[in-house]
Amino acid sequence: MGNVIEISDIHAPELGAYARLTEAQLRNRRHPEQGIFIAESAKVIGHGLDAGYVPISLLMERRQIEGQGRAIIDRCGDIPVYTADRELLERLTGYQLTRGILCAMKRPQMKPLHEVIWNGQRVAILDGLVDPTNVGAAFRSAAALGMDAVLVTPTCCDPLNRRAVRVSMGTVFQVPWTVIGASASDWPEQGMKLLHEMGFKTAAMALCENSVSIDDPKLMGEERLAVIMGTEGDGLDSKTIDLCDYTVMIPMANGVDSLNVAAASAVAFWQLGRH
Question: Could you say which DSSP state residue 85 is in?
Answer without folding.
Answer: -
